[in-house]
Amino acid sequence: MLKYNEFKANRDIISSNMKFFYIMAIILFFPPFISAGTFDKGKEAFLNNNPAEAVLYLEQALSEEPGNENVYMYLGLSYIQNGLIEKAITVFLNGADQAGIQEGRFYLNAGNAYYSKEKLDEALKLYNLIISEGFREKGQALLNKANIYMTKKNFPEAVSLYKEYLLEEPLSDQKEKILRLITLIEAKIEAEALEAERLAAEAERLRLSEEQRKASEAAEAERLRLAEEKRKAEEAARQQALMDEILNSLSTIGEDTQNIAADSETIKQTDEASDIDD
Hints:
Largest sheet: none
Distance between the termini: 145 Å
Radius of gyration: 50 Å
Structural class: mainly alpha
CATH topology of the domain at 5-190: Serine Threonine Protein Phosphatase 5, Tetratricopeptide repeat
CATH class of the domain at 5-190: Mainly Alpha
Number of helices: 11
Order of helices and strands: HHHHHHHHHHH
């Protein structure tokens, strides 16, 4: 689990160069704004929805009261209203370094600023820090973390976090909306699970059907192979029988030739005998 001290290590590196620049800018271009009540003027400008003027006062107030966490808070919020999100994050994290009563709020604001820039992983680190440290802002961190998991389409984790948030904030004015959302998400999860089961069953049916088709094709191929072997064997037997028949006939012709030769000799001898008698 991420510890908040890890965030403090590099804060001064991020903000040290900017602080001198903004202080000098105010001194050179806006000397009338520098007075003993600089922070009060900056706060008033912020509350009157004049964030540009608020920034000028509050940046100066930060140099005057570097240990006043309220200066960091209002300056960070003024930066956000001016669209200076990265500067706001730096100020909020520097404000958290003061380790005052608003430490958790600084981390929450920094996390929300990251969220607005779609830097979800950075936001999650800060929300996890708030949750693990048990700051007063734990409930809001749980809710924002759940929203991030909705964005990531990790619906089971989102539901778990929404339920944890309701346990942390049972009197939340968003309770009914969150309960409806949980119902919709759980219905979606169930529907997706049923669809996944259906698709798995269909895939298994197709697999078995394919196996049966292949088995049938294999059986047919084996039948054809055996039939071909039988045909070849029968053909070989027929040819062998024919050759045997021819050989047998050749053997009989030889015997007939010998008989004919013997008969001819007998006839010749008979003729010769007849001549003698004459």
